[in-house]
Amino acid sequence: MSPTIVAFSLIATALACSGNAKSPAGGGFQAMPVQVMEAKAVPVNDSSEYVATVKSRDSAVIMPQVEGQVTQIFVHSGDRIDAGASLMEIDPLKQQATVKSQQGARAAQQAQLDWAKQQYERIVGLSAAGVVSKQDLDQAKATLDAAQAQRNALDAQVREQEVQLQYYKVVAPRAGIVGDIPVRMGDRVTTSTQLTTIDQPGSLEAYVYVPIERSAQLKMNLPVQILDSAGRVLADSRITFVSPQVDNTTQTVLVKARIANGNEALRHAEFIRARVIWGIRQSPEVPILAVSRLAGQYFAFVAEQQANGSFAAKQRPLTIGQTVGNNYEVREGIKPGDKVIVSGTQFLVDGMPVIPQG
């Protein structure tokens, strides 16, 4: 017999030994009045909770497209900026010199092109008068074409270097809020250096990693609840993506659920709890105060009707599911219609006569 039942037996024995605990006929317990509540089947969500990560659907990581030394930082973390706003400047002096050099080469080639045009026009006139040969005319035309092609090539190079020069001023690709700025003026950066982030609040996704054992139950539009640390629901969502692959390291399947986050209660990269609701089942519920626990096992007393019409307290081992408000979901041990004893349970022992009330 368990220690709790032994303790209950000692209490009951003490009551039985007192004058008030005796029944009028002599031996046995006097029936004890108890409050009971009929167990009713209620719809309960069949769900599982997992740790999830919040990620922004509108977060842009800003990296430079050129290498160099940071010479100017125009914004601060937390600033709200418009699209196209200047964020930083990387030392452009070397690139400016390259652009000027290319522009000079283009100007020189333009002079060569102008001279080739003049020569060709002169040869065309002389050829019409029969002064020069057809070979001289062809040679002048070839020289003009080569000069034109060379000028076009230099034009393309100048445009390329001018575009490259624009990359030395880093601008915001979209409107939003400036994130952390890990670099400082004077730092040398490369194309793999993260300068900052631009976030647009209000559009997030929960990345939930579901164990492979439950992967067969995953499907699109399955309800998901986003919870805070106290278990309160912050947002209701549905699965919008189920990965076709399994993570080799964790043996989990990635699912995503969009979060409206209109009140900005969540932040990018925040760890949260996500409750995936697989379906709804009918289960009885009992008040938490009617349930006792011993060595990890849950118990409750039920008023069972005997053959003579009287009632006796019967202790039932329970398999507990979710906590719903002030009640436990009972998966095994109690059926709908059972009269669960909710008062005086500390004085009861298994088989003790009781008078159900309420």
Description:
With 358 residues, the protein is of the alpha+beta class. It has three domains: 3-43 and 281-357, conserved putative lor/sdh protein from methanococcus maripaludis s2 fold (Beta Barrel); 48-59 and 199-280, Beta Barrel (Elongation Factor Tu (Ef-tu), domain 3); 93-167, Helix Hairpins. Helices cover 23% and strands 41% of the residues. The protein has three helices and 23 strands. The chain has helices spanning 3-17, 93-128, 134-166, and strands at 22-23, 26-29, 32-38, 41-56, 59-62, 68-73, 80-81, 86-90, 169-171, 176-178, 188-189, 196-199, 204-211, 223-227, 233-242, 252-259, 271-287, 291-294, 297-305, 311-324, 327-332, 339-341, 353-357. The protein has a six-stranded antiparallel β-barrel. A four-stranded antiparallel β-sheet has the order 5-12-10-7, with no helix packed on it. The chain has a four-stranded antiparallel β-sheet with strand order 9-8-6-11, with no helix packed on it. Helix 2 (93-128) runs antiparallel to helix 3. The longest helix has 36 residues, at 93-128. Mean pLDDT is 87; it is low at 1-27.
CATH class of the largest domain equals: Mainly Beta
> Which descriptor suits the 3D outline?
rod-shaped
Radius of gyration: 41 Å
Q: Which runs of at least 5 residues are low in confidence (pLDDT < 50)?
A: 1-27
What is the terminal-to-terminal distance? 31 Å
Average residue pLDDT:
87
N-to-C series of helices and strands? HEEEEEEEEHHEEEEEEEEEEEEEEE
- Beta-strand fraction estimate: 35-45%
CATH topology of the largest domain: conserved putative lor/sdh protein from methanococcus maripaludis s2 fold
Q: Note the total helix count.
A: 3
Class per helix and strand makeup: alpha+beta
Q: Numbering strands along the chain, what is their spatial order in the largest sheet? A: 4-13-16-15-14-17
Approximate helicity band: 10-25%
Largest sheet: 6 strands, antiparallel, barrel
Q: How many separate domains? A: 3
CATH architecture assignment of the largest domain: Beta Barrel
What's the count of strands? Answer: 23
